C-alpha cells in the first residue's frame, strides 16, 4: 500500500512493521485525553473535526471507557473533503489579483508580502466581527481610494473578510452536520483540531450552527493533536506502563467485495448478462458479493472470512496461482451497493499468490458437465480492517498463502 511503502522508503522500518493510524482518530485520542476538564463521561459522543491546510477530516466516537485505558466506538463512517485553509488562501489571492493586478507596481513580490500577512495574522485572528478591518502591505502600489490602497497598504473590511471565509466555513459546517445526522448516538461536543481548527471564526461559526445542544471545544495543543495522538496510541501498544487506546468497532467507510460467479436466476438477474458455464452445464452470471457495506460495524483486527473456489481445465496446465481482485465503492449512507459491477466500482487490491509449492496431485479434480476434467481449488479470503489500512489474506488448506495491504482512509 502507498502509505506503508512511503514510510519504508523514508527509513521508518519495514512496511510490515510500520504502525499507522488515521489522522482524525489520532487527533481524537489526544483530544479526549487532554479535555477531561470538559466533563466528558463514559457514554458521551463527540465529533472530531481535523481542519488542516488541504483537507478537513471528521470522525465520530462514543466513549466506552476512559480509565484505566481508553475504549472508543465509531458511530459514523469517517468523512472528509478538500475545504482546508489553503482554499481560503486562494480566495484571498484571487481578491488581490482582481483588484490590484492592473495597477502599476503590482508584481509577485507585492502579492507574496500581502499573502504572508494574510497567512500569519489575518487568517489566524479574524473572529468574524464585521467591524474588524485588516491592512495588508502592498509596497510599490500607488494610493487609490477606489481599490482601498493608501500609503502602501491595502484595506480589507471585516465584511469582505466574512465573504472570504463563509463558503469554506459552510462546507465544513455541512461535513459536521452530516456526521451528527449519521451518528447512531446523540452528539455532545465537537472537537476542533488542526491548523485551521484554531481559527476563531471557524469556532464561532460552528457554535452558532450547533449550539446550544452541542458544545464546540478547542483542545489544548490542537495544532499538533494528530502527532501527539499517534504517539500516544503507539506508546500504548508497545509499553505496559502507558495508557492504551482501543477502538471496539469502526464504521465501514465504503463497501468492499469481489466479483462472484453464480447460477443465473431469471427472477433476479439481468438476462443480458448471463453466460454459459460449460463445467456446470448451466447459465451463470457475474454479480458483486459485498462482504462489507458502507456503514457496517467492523471490529478491529477481526478477520471477515469468506469462502471461494476457482476452476481450471486440467488440459490447460497446472493450477499454480490464484488471481483475486478486490473492489470498493462509495455510496450515500443507507444506499444498498449494486448487484453488478459498474464504472463507479474501483479496484481496491489484488491478490495473486503462487501455489507452486502445492503438490499438483493433491489438487482436487472433478469431471464437468462437458465431460472435461477440471482442477478445483477452494480457498478463503480473510479481510481485516484497521484504523487507516486494511489487509486481505488468501488461505488454502489452513495456511496463509499471501496477503496484500491497502490504504483505508
TrEMBL record:
<dbReference type="Pfam" id="PF00012">
    <property type="entry name" value="HSP70"/>
</dbReference>
<protein>
    <recommendedName>
        <fullName>Hsp70 family chaperone</fullName>
    </recommendedName>
</protein>
<dbReference type="GO" id="GO:0005524">
    <property type="term" value="F:ATP binding"/>
</dbReference>
<dbReference type="InterPro" id="IPR043129">
    <property type="entry name" value="ATPase_NBD"/>
</dbReference>
<dbReference type="GO" id="GO:0140662">
    <property type="term" value="F:ATP-dependent protein folding chaperone"/>
</dbReference>
<keyword id="KW-0067">ATP-binding</keyword>
<keyword id="KW-0547">Nucleotide-binding</keyword>
<dbReference type="InterPro" id="IPR013126">
    <property type="entry name" value="Hsp_70_fam"/>
</dbReference>
